[in-house]
Amino acid sequence: MHYVSDHAQLPCRVTEKPMRPLAVLILLTALAPLPASAGKPLDRATASVLADFVRPTTVPYPDSNPYSKAKVELGRKLFFDTALSGDGTRSCATCHAPVSGWQDGVARHQALDGTMLGRRTPSAQDGAWGELFFWDGRAASLEEQALGPVQSVLEMNQTLDGMVRTLEAKPEYSGLFAGAFPENPKITPDTVAKAIATFERSLVSGITPFDRWVAGDDKAISREAKRGFDVFTGQAGCVSCHSGWQFTDHAFHDIGLPSDDLGRGAIIKVPELNHAFKTPTLRNVADRAPYMHDGSIDTLEGVVEHYRSGIVQRPTLSPDLPRIDALSDRDIKDLVAFLHSLSPDPATAADSLTASAPSATDASDTLTIVQKNKQFSERHVHISAGQALTIENHDTRAHNIQVFSENLEFNSGYQEPGEHVSLPFTQAGTYHVFCGIHPKMKLQVDVK
User: Fold this and answer.
1) 3-class DSSP state for residue 239?
2) What phi and psi, each to the nearest 5 degrees, are found at residue 28?
3) Are residues 385 and 276 in the same domain?
4) Domain co-membership, 79 together with 195
5) What is the mean pLDDT of the chain?
6) Do 283 and 234 share a structural domain?
7) Partner of 374 at 20 to 30 A CA spacing, among 44, 91, 112, 417?
8) Does 155 participate in catalysis according to the annotation?
9) What letter does residue 276 receive in the DSSP assignment?
10) Out of the domains of life, which is the source (predicted)?
């Protein structure tokens, strides 16, 4: 498949089956529970709101690509190796530099042909919790994403065969691949992608003052930041999209930027999703300027002002878009103070890893699934071949039901609130259903 740059204006469509495996959970020191604070404890109401923002204590690794230290180290070496580019001048770290928060700190990186790429480089941190990758969500996994820039003629301009030949010619890689993949030590695009993805899953953002506040330290953030959090979760409505500990719903929204880039709509061929791009995390956001998918806004104050007065009006605007016309100048200052509290304290070492198995998900035999609050009413169902699931949208927002497998390829199009989708299953197997707009919505269907 020919890969177009994430920064290009005409991205290709991904039709491969999304990787939706159960996760093997790896305990990471950087994510360990924070020590109890000697400061004033939080009141019950505040603690209840903050419960949605608690950092996880584990990092998910998929069953199809489990964690190993050898694989992380191989992935690290590959990530920084310019051999992955056609002319030997660029590595993954060229755009995802550690000193710049695993991004490049510019609005748009320069392409190999001297032009500017179409989209900003996102950070590689916290990708272990991602759902779909690239700004338009065309890659279903970190493994798939890893080889996208390698093949892009504007970014690294390398063929997969050429990449393999170049790595095979470097003697040090033979032993490294044998250690990381003892059952199949051959250098292949698949093993390269798995190693890089494993390393990327190890890139976890650090503990922040906000995290310490969530853990119970009432003095961890300023009074202004606390007021800003109230604005963020209340009047401004930012939390509609920037939710959870990562401050992202991993979904795709048109936020009214003046751009001809069709984003997600071009990928899933749904015009109602034109100009929609993935919600970025707000972790480390104060250190990750410039902002937006095209790097068009230089400051956090400018971002807030966009939502207050700069939105381009069009039919595809997200229903979750915050309306903050009434925010005062003080509200904005407090909101920005809160966003600064999401920058990490000095990095915590992540050198103690322990594997644990995820708990099994109970399966239901219902044939009716309800969508509400960006969730399916069930996460796992089992049915018989020849039966169909009815998926009813009881939400206030539209959804897009998708399935990609050898036996079934399904795209519901734009499913409005109140509409239902009938999803027939004629052959036995395991199917992974997800929402193409809100990809955290996932449903496993076992058909017998």
Assistant:
1) helix
2) -120, 130
3) no
4) yes
5) 88
6) yes
7) 44
8) yes
9) B
10) Bacteria
CA separation (Å) from 277 to 47, 263, 280, 338? 32, 6, 9, 24
Cis peptide bond upstream of 280, omega within 30: no
Residue 361 reports pLDDT greater than 80: no
The model's pTM is 0.88
What residues contact residue 227 under an 8 Å CB cut-off, 6+ apart? Answer: 334, 337, 338
The kind and range of the H/E element at 229 are: helix 223-233
Q: Please give the Cα distance from 59 to 196 (Å, whole number).
A: 16
**Do residues 279 and 164 share a domain?**
no
Domain that holds residue 327: 222-340
| Active-site option among 143, 155, 200, 378 | 155
Strand partners, 103: 97
- Give first-to-last CA distance, the chain, whole Å: 33
Domain count, the chain: 3
Token readout for 427 is 């052959």
| 132's tokens | 């779909």
What pLDDT band is residue 326 in, cutting at 50, 70 and 90? confident
Token pair 């904005």 in the structure block, residue: 332
Transcribe 180-215 into DSSP letters. Answer: H-TT-----HHHHHHHHHHHHHT--PPP-HHHHHHT
- Domain-located, residue 5: no
What DSSP assignment string belongs to 125-173? TTGGG-SSBSTT--BSSHHHHHHHHHH-TTTT---HHHHHHHHHTSTHH
